[in-house]
Specification:
CATH superfamily of the largest domain: Glycogen Phosphorylase B
CATH architecture of the largest domain: 3-Layer(aba) Sandwich
Shape: globular
Number of strands: 17
CATH topology of the largest domain: Rossmann fold
Strand order of the largest sheet: 3-2-1-4-5-6-7
Helix content: 40-55%
Bound molecules: uridine-diphosphate-N-acetylglucosamine, uridine-5'-diphosphate
Largest sheet: 7 strands, parallel
C-alpha cells in the first residue's frame, strides 16, 4: 500500500517522523510531499537530517505568501501529485496551511484522509490554525486524536466514534526517541555550548501571528522578558518573529540585554537538549506545550487560550496571554519557588507513552487489509437516524449496546464527566446520547 504524507513546516516534520519510521519499518510505500511553506535550512532541512528522515519525493516550494495565495498554490501542487501517484491514503498533521490544503484536495479526489492530531480546539476562530484544523477534520476519514478530550470534541461535533482513534501524540515519540541522542556528550552542537552551563535557563519561543504581528502584544512580552533579569533567557528566534522585531525596532534593544541570548532557530536535537536543561519554558508554540510536559519542564504559555487544555488542567502549564505583569509574576514564581516549580513537574503525561506512530500505522494497515480504505458512493438506501438521549440501566458495554439495537453512541455522561464511548466502556447508570438508525 502507498501512504502519502503531506507536510510543510518544522513541527509537522518533527511530529510525522515516527509515523514515517513506522511506514518504512513495515516496508510500505511512502510518498513524501513537502509544501515548501518552511524553506530556510534551519526550519526544514535540519529536521530531515536530525531525525534521519528520507528527503521528500516532491517539494511544491510554495514559499511565503498571504494565506489565500499560499494555500491555493499548495492545493494546485498537491492535486497534481495525488492525481499522478494514486496513494491509498493521505496523512496530514496538525493545523498548518498544509493540513488545510492537503485534506481539502485529497477528500475532493476521494482519497481517504487521516488527520494526525485531530480534534484539538482552542475555540478561538481568529487563529488561522483553528480554521485549518476544523476544516481538516471536516474532510477526514481517520481521526488520530491525542487524548480523550480531543475525541470528545469530535464526538460532540457529530463525528462517528468508529473513525476516532485515541493514539497519543507523536511528539512524545519524537522526544523519547531523540532525547538520548541529543544528550550524547560527543555530539557536535550548532550553538554555543556555554549557554547550557548558565543558571536559571528559560527557553523562549514565539511565532504566533496574534503575538508577533501585534506591536502592542509584542512590546508587552518583550517588556516582561527584559525585566526577568534573574533568568538566562535563551531565545531561538523564528524567522517570522525576527522580521517583526526588526520592523518594530525592538531587536536592537533585546540584543543589548545581558540576560537575553538571541540565537538562530535550533535543530531538533539541540533544541531538545536545551529544553532538558531549562527551568522554564515561555512559549506560544503548540508543540512546546506538549514537549514541556513530556520532559517535566514547567511551561508558561503566552496565549489567552490553548487547544492543549490538558496541560493546564493537570497543572503543568499556565496561560498568561501577553500580559506583562502576569508573565513576570508567574515566571518569578517558577524560578524562585521550588515547591511551586516542583508541583508543575513530574505530572502524568496526557499525551501517551511514545508509541503513537506505531498505533497510527497499525490502524491504517488493518483498515487496508480489511478493504475499508476507500471512499465510494453508497449503494444502500439511505438510513435515517434520530438522535436520542437515555439513561442506561443495563450492565452492558458500548459495542454490545450498539450491536443489540442498531444504535450509534455519540457521547456518554457518567454523572460528573463526559466520556468518550470506547468499545468496552460500561454504560450502567450512565446517560447516553445516541443515534437511532431507521432503515427504510
Ligand atoms: C506556520 C504555521 C503555524 C505553525 C508554524 C510552525 C500556518 C497558518 N502557520 O507559521 O501554524 O505553528 O508554521 O513554525 O500554517 N519565513 C522565513 N523562512 C521560512 C519560513 C518562513 O523567513 O523558512 C518567514 C517569512 O517571512 C514568512 C513568515 O516567516 O512570511 C511566516 O511564515 P509562515 O509559514 O507563513 O507562518 P509561520 O509563522 O511559520
Ligand atoms: N523547535 C526546534 N527548534 C527551535 C524551536 C522549536 O526544533 O529552535 C521544535 C520544538 O521542539 C517543537 C517544534 O519545533 O517540537 C515546535 O514548532 P513551532 O513552535 O514552530 O510550531 P507549533 O508547534 O507551534 O506549531
Amino acid at each position: 500500500m502507498k501512504i502519502a504524507i503531506i507536510l510543510g513546516t518544522r513541527p509537522e516534520i518533527i511530529k510525522m517522523a515516527s509515523v514515517i519510521d513506522e511506514i518504512i519499518k513495515k516496508d510500505m510505500e511512502l510518498l513524501l510531499i513537502h509544501t515548501g511553506q518552511h524553506y530556510d535550512p534551519e526550519m526544514s532541512d535540519a529536521f530531515f537530517k536530525d531525525l534521519k528522515l528520507p528527503y521528500p519525493d516532491y517539494n511544491i516550494a510554495v514559499g511565503s505568501f498571504s494565506h489565500g495565495k499560499q494555500t491555493a498554490k499548495m492545493m494546485e501542487g498537491i492535486e497534481e501529485v495525488l492525481v499522478k501517484e494514486h496513494p491509498d491514503i493521505v496523512l496530514v498533521q496538525g493545523d498548518t496551511n498544509a493540513v488545510l490544503a492537503g485534506a481539502l484536495v485529497a477528500s475532493k479526489l476521494h482519497v481517504p484522509v487521516g488527520h494526525v492530531e485531530a480534534g484539538l480546539r482552542s475555540y478561538d476562530d481568529s487563529m488561522p490554525e483553528e480554521v485549518n484544523r476544523k476544516i481538516a477534520d471536516a474532510c477526514s476519514m481517520f481521526y488520530f486524536v491525542p487524548t480523550e478530550k480531543s475525541a470528545i470534541n469530535l464526538s460532540l461535533e457529530g463525528i462517528d466514534r468508529n473513525k476516532i482513534h485515541i493514539a497519543g501524540n507523536t511528539i512524545v515519540d519524537a522526544c523519547y526517541r531523540n532525547l538520548k541522542i541529543a544528550k550524547n556528550p560527543n555530539r557536535q552542537l550548532e550553538f554555543d555550548k556555554k549557554l547550557l552551563n548558565l543558571e536559571n535557563i528559560v527557553t523562549l519561543t514565539m511565532h504566533r501571528a496574534e503575538n508577533v504581528d501585534n506591536k502592542q502584544r509584542l512590546i508587552s512580552i518583550i517588556g516582561a522578558i527584559s525585566k526577568l533579569t534573574e533568568a538566562n533567557i535563551i531565545f531561538p528566534i523564528h524567522p517570522r518573529t525576527k522580521k517583526t522585531l526588526e520592523d518594530f525596532g525592538l531587536l536592537d534593544k533585546l540584543s543589548k540585554l545581558d540576560h537575553i541570548h538571541l540565537i538562530k532557530p535550533l535543530g531538533y536535537l539541540d533544541f531538545l537538549l536545551l529544553l532538558s536543561k531549562s527551568s522554564l519554558v515561555l512559549t506560544d508554540s503548540g508543540g512546546l506545550q506538549e514537549e514541556a510536559i513530556t520532559l517535566n519542564v514547567p511551561a508558561i504559555t503566552l496565549r489567552y487560550n490553548t487547544e492543549r487544555p490538558e496541560t493546564v488542567d493537570v497543572g503543568a502549564n499556565i496561560l498568561v496571554g501577553a500580559d506583562e505583569n502576569k508573565i513576570i509574576e508567574f515566571s518569578k514564581k517558577v524560578l524562585n519557588d521550588c515547591e511551586f516549580s516542583n508541583s508543575m513537574k513530574n505530572i502524568k503525561n496526557p499525551y501517551g507513552n511514545g508509541n503513537s506512530g506505531f498505533k497510527i500505522i497499525e490502524i491504517i494497515h488493518n483498515s487496508y487489509l480489511n478493504g475499508n480504505l476507500k471512499i465510494t458512493s453508497p449503494e444502500d438506501i439511505m438510513s435515517i437516524f434520530n438522535t436520542k438521549i437515555s439513561k442506561i440501566n443495563e450492565d452492558i458495554n458500548v459495542s454490545d449496546f450498539e450491536d443489540k439495537n442498531n444504535f450509534r453512541i455519540r457521547i456518554v455522561y457518567n454523572g460528573s464527566n463526559i466520556e468518550f464511548p470506547e468499545d468496552n466502556l460500561n454504560l450502567k447508570n450512565k446517560l447516553v446520547v445516541f443515534d437511532v438508525f431507521k432503515n427504510n
